[in-house]
Automatic annotation (TrEMBL):
InterPro entries: B-gal_small/dom_5 (IPR004199), Bact_Beta-galactosidase (IPR050347), Beta-gal/glucu_dom_sf (IPR036156), Gal_mutarotase_sf_dom (IPR011013), Galactose-bd-like_sf (IPR008979), GH (IPR017853), GH-type_carb-bd (IPR014718), Glyco_hydro_2 (IPR006101). GO terms for cellular component: beta-galactosidase complex. This is Lactase. Keywords: Glycosidase, Hydrolase. Residues 801-1084 form the Beta galactosidase small chain/ domain. The keyword Hydrolase applies. It comes from the Eukaryota. Gene3D superfamilies: 2.70.98.10, Galactose-binding domain-like, Glycosidases, Immunoglobulins. GO terms for biological process: lactose catabolic process. Belongs to the glycosyl hydrolase 2 family. PANTHER family: BETA-GALACTOSIDASE, LACTASE. It comes from Gomphillus americanus.
Length: 1091
């Protein structure tokens, strides 16, 4: 702790200010003071990284925050309006005797995430503002974090160096002092700021850096970007030394090809500070040739501010996301009198590529591309937006390994080092201005009482033009909008990975966007411009949409910007496939359309990762979302909508996305193309630029029954398959051993031939499966436990008991269902009297997914699908001629209040070998719903059956619109691993196309087996009730509680998952119609030991 007596900030206003001037952080006209022009990102060797431990003070508002000892008269207006009433007091009266308590804080970081102390709290909103809407004003309670640290200048630096202070990112606004001298001010949280501190820094001894950071500023109104509100210095801080007399302040690299896309011109524009003639040396090296020098260009430059040069390059290797080839560029300056003594050298990497809108399509190097992308926020579960570079790198590797080729930086420029990695690994990047003001929508819509259920286009017409008037269509904000566009363009202009500039996100549309577009076209004509808010593409180079259905996309592609059947601008989906919880569904449908319609060039899934933050409860923690930190208002779970969990490991949605966007497709040709014992496969190359020489093709032929028998495996020789073409390859079936009663499957995989900078050799890029026979896999069904003992029947007024030396089944005559099944080894089925009264019952309900909650779940609950009751209409029991016992049950399943139900006619047939055959006919009646969550059986089994074995799709979950990524095989898994622990509990773990499933005791290997009488089925097994899954806010051990029984679902129909949380709902073909259905299942007591 340290103490400090300071002069009150109210005495210190900017020169010319009066007591009526607003503070900088409440003045839309002041978004920077003394900041140097934004330049291309590079950090010279003469630099000091100031990351680490800083002194820190937290205050509830600026008035209570400390100030440095002031050494000049140019201190900015940092005070709040409430202090101005004392402006005329004498200096003696204004001496502040507050004792300030200082602590330590990590930089980069956010003060709300400091575990050791309570410095505010994280707050999540998606759309709404967390403060009153009255721009440019901000709350009086404006938490202020003051940072302080010492630094010294490296003695090896030249005495005449220009010393700069650089911040890569500070949220949301800040004033800076060095040694008590005011240095400057900046707002624009995700944009860099650089200040010249040469005149304030001491070359000998220690210097004090003092930074006051404000949680809210007028810029907060245009930083409403569907993420946590977090404050502080969250990116790197540097002290930089530039040459003092002659230096390069900035440089711009552009590459242009000739009409044949063969030879190129390297264009350089170099911003100089020089008072004397200098020499510029340009060297371009090819690293693959042992740093072979391609170009060595020397040019004398008179005293000037800019040097422009064009250098011809013969047949350079082209940069693409598939071939991210980079050259080494050296730019050096020296005195003309001493050309060998370099004053300054900049090392950069150059990728030769050219981006155009040509014939209505987005093309790179003359070729149409398809964006298979994701939206990416800065996020780390412990550090918020202060993301370590190693974590970013791992994210990008995971993207490449999942066939992702594009990133939209949502909704602000990323850590600049991320773009260096994108250049090296190969991504198409949409680089977006730090701009979103979505919250103005609610400020307009709520007073108009506009329901969210209203058609989106209607809501836009009623609200968007009014919402734009706050800032986007307000000329007072023009310069601040332009500043944010200039910052991203000038910082990131030299990255080949950046192919599109974006004017921001969900900021409506107004005159300030038009000014931004004009600026971009003047500053950089080599890249197209994107902005979804410009619905008619007046000042953008492409049409962009969010979450249209595939049907709507068909309409848009044929009508928007189309005249006489022709169009001049492409379409991309800047957001689609909302990946919230168990989803997204129908990704394959979008991919099919992207291939069919050349105008639509892909898009970006929303979004890459959940944004959960660690919420600690003692020594334990869970991943929290809106409201978990006592934050109000908040938008709850909407921050958990990624393809990755909050620790950035893949969800099932990412696995699905990898499969459907795989750049290589394999399909089996029909029988008419099969000659003899040969399978013909078509290999299609969907890369945009490269052939398939980098992959190897392997195959295996397997017999699937109780286990996997590999019948043949080998390598498929691939012919040359250039991009956009396909070839037929053949797999011989000669001498394949016949396996009785087994399904035979051919699986083909395409893997990397050699290691890359993003994956090891053997990494699988694409695969396909093909069934080679039509066996029903009867051999996969274990034989029942044999018994020579006939069945005994004991009847009482309330129940029937059927048993022999192997098992006992009890049937409840009051409920019309089985309540217990006990084998000689163990209990198999049991009822849960607190929830169910039977061990087997027709099942229609499931816990909702996130995508069900807005529409389907309320619909289903409105029809009482979750509250079905049973009325027994008739029961009969008989013994068949073959010694089986047959029970026929007629029940009526219906919810309270309503006039609809399901007539359930079920036959239970029990044989002496511990086999239970269930045949059901379900007939809906009355004012019934159109669709249901599922149709099947709920079977309540003992939790001791904790090992599963099954033949079907796996190893992960699958649903009708989310199953492309799963393979048919024989799987064995602990029951606990079947459930997907989404960070918001919900329905999960369904598995489709099952031929059989077995639940076995881990020690005895005995248990229960289920098969469907005809065809395949879906199944799921978990220990959590649907009620618990629906009401729990977080996974175990906090709110999910294991039930006394495990519920096995055996379904003949299950609903898809869709993207209804934000986007299209489940498609009609993936719904479960509420109509008559007949099905049968066979349950058996089995033993692997005796099989």
């Amino acid at each position: 702790m340290a103490t400090q007596a300071v002069v009150s900030p109210v005495l210190y206003l900017p020169k010319g200010s009066t007591s009526s001037d607003p503070p900088d952080y409440e003045n839309e006209q002041i978004f920077q003071r003394n900041r140097l022009p934004t330049r291309a990102y590079w950090i010279p060797e003469t630099s000091i990284l100031l990351n680490g431990e800083w002194d820190f003070h937290y205050a509830s508002d600026p008035l209570h925050a400390p100030l440095p000892k002031v050494n000049d008269d140019a201190t900015p207006n940092t005070s709040s309006r409430s202090s101005w009433a004392t402006y005329d007091l004498s200096p003696e009266e204004m001496v502040d005797e507050i004792v300030y308590e200082w602590t330590k804080i990590a930089v980069p970081g956010h003060w709300q995430l400091e575990r050791s102390r309570k410095f505010g709290r994280p707050q999540y909103t998606n759309v709404i503002y967390p403060f009153p809407v009255c721009p440019p004003h901000v709350p009086t309670d404006n938490p202020t974090g003051t940072y302080r640290r010492q630094f010294s200048i490296t003695k090896a630096w030249a005495k005449d160096s220009q010393i700069r202070l650089r911040f890569e990112g500070v949220d949301s606004a800040y004033h800076v002092w060095v040694n008590g001298h005011f240095v400057g001010y900046h707002q624009g949280s995700r944009n860099p700021a650089e200040f010249d501190i040469t005149s304030t820094v001491q070359s000998e001894g220690q210097n004090e850096l003092f930074v006051r950071v404000y949680q809210w500023c007028d810029g907060s109104y245009i930083e409403d970007q569907d993420q946590w509100w977090l404050s502080g210095i969250f990116r790197d801080v540097y002290i930089l030394a530039f040459p003092g007399k002659s230096r390069i302040d900035d440089y711009t690299v552009r590459t242009n090809f000739d009409q044949d896309m063969q030879n190129a011109v390297l264009e350089l524009s170099i911003d100089l500070f020089t008072l004397e003639p200098i020499q510029i040396d340009i060297t371009l090296c090819d690293p693959s040739g042992g740093d072979l020098v391609l170009v060595s260009h020397k040019q004398g430059i008179p005293p000037t501010s800019t040097a422009n040069m064009k250098i011809a390059i013969k047949e350079p290797k082209k940069w693409t996301a598939e071939t991210p080839y980079l050259y080494e560029l050296l730019i050096s300056i020296s005195d003309q009198s001493s050309p060998d003594e370099k004053i300054q050298t900049i090392q950069a990497k150059v990728g030769f590529r050219q981006v155009e809108i040509k014939n209505g399509q987005l093309v790179v190097n003359g070729e149409r591309i398809v964006l298979q992308g994701v939206n990416r926020h800065d996020h780390h579960p412990s550090f918020g937006r202060a993301v370590p570079l190693s974590f970013i790198h791992q994210d990008l590797l995971l993207m490449k390994q999942h066939n992702i080729n594009a990133i939209r930086c949502s909704h602000y420029p990323p850590n600049p080092k991320m773009l260096e990695l994108c250049d090296e690994l190969g991504f198409w990047v949409v680089d977006e201005a730090d701009l979103e003001c979505h919250g103005f929508y609610d400020a307009v819509a709520r007073p108009l009482d506009i329901p969210e259920e209203m058609d989106y286009e209607k809501r836009k017409k009623l609200t968007f033009s009014q919402a734009a008037e706050y800032t986007s269509n307000n000329p007072k904000w023009r310069q601040q909008y332009l500043d944010r566009m200039e910052s991203v363009v000038q910082r990131d202009k030299n990255h080949p990975s950046v192919i599109i500039w974006s004017l921001g996100n969900e900021a409506f549309y107004g005159c300030n966007h038009k000014s931004m577009y004009d600026y971009v076209k003047k500053a950089d004509h080599t890249r197209p411009v994107h902005y979804e808010g410009d619905a008619k593409a007046e000042t953008t180079d492409m049409y962009s949409y969010m979450y249209p259905s595939t049907e709507k996309l068909v309409e848009l592609s044929k009508t928007e910007g189309v005249t006489d059947g022709k169009y001049s601008k492409p379409i991309i989906l800047c957001e689609y496939g909302h990946a919230m919880g168990n989803g997204p569904g129908n990704l394959q449908g979008y991919q099919d359309f992207f291939k069919k319609c050349l105008r639509v060039q892909g898009g970006f899934i929303w979004e890459w990762a959940n944004h959960g933050l660690h919420r600690f409860q003692g020594r334990r923690s869970f991943l929290g979302y809106g409201g978990d930190f006592g934050d109000f208002p908040n938008d709850g779970t909407f921050v958990m909508d990624g393809l990755c969990f909050s620790n950035h490991t893949p969800t099932p949605g990412l696995t699905e996305y990898k499969k459907v966007i795989a750049p290589i497709k394999i399909s089996r040709q029909g029988n008419e193309r099969t000659t003899g014992n040969v399978v013909e496969l078509r290999i299609e190359n969907h890369y945009d630029f490269i052939d398939l020489n980098h992959v190897t093709a392997t195959f295996k032929i397997e017999a699937l029954a109780q286990s996997i028998i590999i019948l043949r495996a080998g390598v498929i020789e691939l012919p040359s398959i250039p991009t956009g073409t396909s070839q037929i390859v053949k797999v011989s079936l000669d001498n394949i051993r016949q396996v009785e009663n087994a399904e035979v499957w051919l699986t083909v995989g395409l893997r990397l031939k050699h290691a890359t900078n993003w994956a090891d050799a053997g990494h699988e890029i694409a695969w396909s499966q093909h069934q080679l026979n039509v066996s029903k896999a009867l051999g996969s069904i274990m034989k029942p436990l044999a018994s020579s003992s006939e069945l005994q029947l004991k009847a009482t007024r309330t129940q029937w008991t059927i048993n022999n030396d192997l098992f006992e089944i009890i049937f409840d005559r009051s409920t019309g269902g089985i309540t217990s099944w006990r084998s000689v080894h163990q209990k198999l089925l049991l009822s849960d009297n607190t929830t169910y009264k039977t061990a087997i019952s027709p099942g229609f309900w499931r816990a909702p997914t996130d995508n069900d909650r807005p529409h389907n779940n309320p619909y289903w609950k409105n029809f009482g699908v979750d509250t079905m009751t049973t009325q027994v209409r008739s029961l009969s029991i008989s013994r068949t001629a073959s010694g089986e016992i047959e029970i026929q049950s007629h029940t009526f399943l219906s919810p309270p209040i309503l006039d609809w139900g399901i007539e359930a006619y079920i036959t239970y047939r029990i044989d002496p070998n511990q086999t239970l055959q269930i045949n059901a006919k379900l007939t809906p009646t009355g004012k019934k719903p159109d669709h249901l969550p599922r149709i099947g059986l709920d079977v309540r089994v003992t939790p001791n059956l904790s090992t599963t074995s099954y033949l079907g799709l796996g190893p992960g979950e699958s649903y009708p619109d989310k199953q492309a990524s799963q393979k048919i095989s024989v799987y064995r898994s602990p029951a606990k691993d079947l459930f997907t622990y989404y960070e918001v509990p919900q329905e999960s773990g369904n598995r489709m196309q099952a031929r059989y499933v077995r639940l076995l005791h881990e020690q005895t290997s005995t248990g229960l087996q289920a098969v469907r009488n005809h065809g395949t089925f879906s199944w799921a097994l978990n220990r959590y009730t649907s009620q618990n899954l629906e009401t729990a806010k977080h996974p175990v051990p906090f709110e999910l509680r294991e039930d006394a029984v495990s519920t096995l679902r055996l379904d003949v129909a299950v609903a898809g998952v869709g993207t209804g949380a934000c986007g299209p709902d489940v498609l009609p073909q993936h719904r479960v119609k509420c109509e008559e259905v007949e099905f049968g299942f066979e349950l058996r007591g089995v033993s692997e030991v005796s099989a």
